[in-house]
């Protein structure tokens, strides 16, 4: 494939004339058929590196990504460019997934976005084998490494795609991976030869700074009032988002709070208000920002410290994606480091406590002992913590450890379809006293559309049921509720929440095995990452951009010139230069004063004046060149007569 074809695709679909730095090198590597791991900073244009080569040749690209919201945004963006793209996730019914996979095998689809959990299903792997695949793209590739800060065991299933298409190259993409993580990514994805392409993590337009202060509110207010445009303020706790947003409003600044406890519709409204610049400041937990394309964010403030440089870099990097000057401010209170270390201890309970949380979780989800394998259940972690009086951070850590050991997978919040399961057997169904004229035809439609509905919860498509039954969607929902009230089915209406997938039957706590090395290594990694975060915050010598660049494996000694460290060095250099100029002017006047009293030999001046002989000789040459003094035939120096 020649360059002309790639540039024609870039111009035709994206209306760009040139690629950004590193994009072309990554595309060339992929086109040559090499497995490639690309490290590119947030906002660096990662998606084009798999989209352009896919559009320049035959075949389909599978894109693995954990974020459903991001999937939908990417699909919408591609469709607006008249590019065929689809996304498969848990928000779709079985029949919808079946139809979309058929389109990928027999149709003109160019991009298939999937969550990693989808790969392990037999239906998906059978269809993938029939697809004309040209590329596999893995977004957020650090999730495949057990040393990554957001390891997800489901990512290990990507190796299954290689078995079906061993000749198809993989492009792994991430914005944050250390040297240890990059090696692990390439090993887990089965790269025959290591191939790492690293873009610079320097953001020349982004001014980083960190301030130790006992008055965070005042520091925040100064920045918000001095920097025009929209911004994000990150805090850790939900209640803090509401309190800080209310305080900013009391100071005359339009602000909203964003956190996982808000209803989906409310979050969407607040997010849209901010994107449209009707709200200046979004005060948010780290639930905010992923997949949001707003290039003109002028500042990101971390009101509380992150616990790793990976998360800090990603969140701070949401500022200034348009290339214009932007600011990333980290505020550190006197007791912030100690508070974070104490939280780590809370979040790593003893292994017996992890087993206790597992047992409570199964009881909360009403899973009997010896059952539950392959179940998918909605899970409200906040309700669970409230009912059992548990600290949310500790529960999340316990779930992560259970996930690492293969017992379950917890997804991010997502749109979930309605689901039903019959609670009576097929034979018992016809013995019940039902309104046969109304319900029999409806039940027959359910049984025909969803085989296996007596054994497990099945996702259903209410529109599809309406089409086959002849009822309206509202009537379908009424009949489902009626069957639910009659205890014929269990019915879960469509909703938005995290999903919990169980990979094993429920065990007694004593039979649960958590590998000690998994537990200890995760604790060590968390402390190591925080030490690096603390080093960044306490650093007073090295350019902050360089600290971040080094952390992600670069060797450059480049100074950004705009972070607080570089600006302070420049101020000191200017002050020192001013002092030197003042000292030189003082020495100059003393020379003129002494020579005004009487002619002197240069050696005499050296003895009478302080300062280095070299600098004194240089000053004498300047005065001679300027005509201020002259040298006599005897070699003495004197003031030039006026």
Describe the structure.
The protein has 642 residues and is an alpha/beta fold. The chain is 46% helix and 15% strand. The protein contains 25 helices and 23 strands. Strands 3-4-2-5-6-1-7 form a 7-stranded parallel sheet, with helices on both faces. Strands 8-13-12-9-11-10 form a 6-stranded parallel sheet, sandwiched between helices. Strand 5, helix 7 and strand 6 form a beta-alpha-beta unit. Helix 2 crosses helix 3, helix 5 (94-106) packs parallel to helix 6 (122-130) and helix 14 crosses helix 16 (392-404). The termini are far apart.
Roughly how many Å is the radius of gyration? 33 Å
Question: Strand order across the biggest sheet?
Answer: 3-4-2-5-6-1-7
The number of distinct β-strands equals: 23
Strand content: 5-15%
Mean pLDDT: 86
| Approximate shape | elongated
Helix content: 40-55%
Sheet having the most strands: 7 strands, parallel
Computed structural class: alpha/beta
Q: Report, as a whole number of angstroms, the end-to-end distance.
A: 80 Å
SS field, number of helical segments: 25
Uncertain residue segments: none
Question: Can I get a quick summary?
Answer:
The protein contains 25 helices and 23 strands.
SSE topology:
Elements: H1 3-14, H2 23-31, E1 36-39, H3 48-55, E2 60-64, H4 68-80, E3 85-88, H5 94-106, E4 111-114, H6 122-130, E5 133-138, H7 159-164, E6 170-174, H8 179-188, E7 196-198, E8 206-212, H9 216-226, E9 230-234, H10 238-250, E10 255-258, H11 264-275, E11 281-284, E12 297-302, H12 309-316, E13 326-332, H13 336-347, H14 351-364, E14 376-378, H15 381-388, H16 392-404, E15 408-410, E16 414-416, E17 419-422, H17 426-429, H18 436-449, E18 458-459, H19 462-469, H20 473-485, E19 489-492, E20 495-497, E21 499-502, H21 516-538, H22 544-551, H23 564-597, H24 602-608, H25 613-625, E22 629-631, E23 637-639
């Amino acid at each position: 494939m020649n360059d002309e074809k790639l540039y024609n695709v870039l111009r035709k679909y994206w209306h760009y004339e040139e690629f950004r730095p590193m994009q072309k090198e990554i595309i060339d590597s992929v086109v040559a058929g090499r497995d490639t791991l690309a490290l590119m900073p947030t906002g660096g244009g990662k998606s084009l590196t798999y989209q352009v080569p896919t559009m320049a040749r035959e075949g389909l690209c599978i894109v693995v990504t954990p974020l459903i919201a991001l999937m939908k945004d990417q699909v919408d963006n591609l469709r607006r460019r008249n590019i065929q793209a689809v996304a498969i996730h848990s928000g779709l019914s079985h029949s919808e997934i079946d139809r979309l996979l058929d389109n990928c095998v027999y149709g003109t689809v160019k991009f298939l976005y999937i969550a990693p959990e989808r790969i392990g299903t037999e239906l998906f792997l059978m269809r993938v084998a029939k697809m004309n695949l040209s590329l596999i793209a893995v977004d957020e590739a650090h999730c495949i490494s057990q040393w990554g800060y957001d390891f997800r065991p489901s990512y290990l299933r990507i190796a299954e795609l290689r078995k079906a298409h061993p000749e198809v190259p993989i492009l792994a993409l991430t914005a944050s991976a250390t040297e240890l993580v990059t090696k692990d990514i390439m090993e887990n994805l089965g790269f025959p030869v290591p191939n790492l392409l690293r873009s610079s993590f320097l953001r020349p337009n982004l001014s980083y700074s960190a301030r130790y202060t006992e008055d965070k509110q005042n520091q925040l207010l100064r920045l918000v009032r001095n920097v025009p445009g929209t911004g994000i303020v990150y805090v850790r706790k939900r209640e803090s988002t509401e309190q800080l947003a209310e305080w900013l409003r009391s100071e005359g600044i339009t602000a909203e709070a964003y956190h996982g406890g808000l209803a989906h519709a409310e979050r969407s409204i607040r997010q849209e208000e901010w994107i449209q610049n009707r709200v200046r400041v979004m005060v948010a937990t780290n639930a905010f920002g992923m997949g949001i394309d707003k290039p003109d964010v002028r500042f990101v403030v971390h009101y509380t410290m992150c616990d790793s440089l990976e998360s800090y870099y990603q969140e701070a990097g949401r500022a200034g994606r348009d290339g214009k000057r932007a600011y990333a401010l980290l505020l550190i209170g006197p007791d912030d480091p100690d508070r974070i270390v104490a939280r780590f201890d809370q979040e790593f309970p003893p292994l017996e406590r992890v087993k206790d949380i597992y047992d409570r979780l199964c009881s909360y989800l009403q899973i009997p002992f010896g059952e539950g394998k392959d179940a998918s259940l909605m899970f409200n972690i906040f309700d669970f913590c409230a009912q059992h009086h548990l600290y949310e951070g500790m529960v999340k850590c316990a779930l992560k450890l259970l996930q690492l050991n293969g017992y379950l997978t917890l997804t991010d919040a997502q749109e979930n379809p309605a689901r039903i399961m019959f609670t009576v057997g097929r034979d018992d169904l016809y013995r019940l006293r039902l309104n046969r004229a109304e319900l029999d035809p409806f039940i027959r439609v359910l049984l025909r559309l969803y085989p296996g509905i007596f054994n497990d919860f099945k996702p259903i498509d209410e529109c599809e049921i309406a089409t086959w039954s002849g009822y309206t969607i509202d009537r379908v929902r009424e009949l489902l509720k009626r069957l639910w009230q009659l205890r014929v089915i269990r019915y879960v209406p469509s909703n938005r929440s995290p999903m919990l997938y169980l990979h094993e039957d429920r065990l007694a706590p004593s039979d649960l095995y958590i590998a000690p090395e998994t537990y200890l290594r995760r604790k060590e990694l968390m402390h190591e990452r925080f030490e690096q975060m603390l080093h960044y915050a306490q650093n007073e010598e090295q350019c902050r951009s360089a600290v971040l660049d080094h952390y992600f494996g670069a060797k450059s000694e480049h100074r950004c010139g705009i972070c607080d460290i570089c600006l302070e060095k420049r101020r000191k250099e200017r002050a020192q230069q001013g002092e030197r100029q003042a000292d030189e002017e003082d020495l100059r006047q003393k020379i003129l004063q002494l020579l005004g009293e009487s002619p002197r030999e240069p050696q005499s001046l050296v003895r009478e004046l302080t300062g280095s002989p070299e600098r004194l000789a240089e000053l004498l040459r300047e005065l001679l060149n300027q005509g201020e003094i002259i040298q006599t035939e005897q070699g003495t120096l004197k003031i030039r007569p006026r």
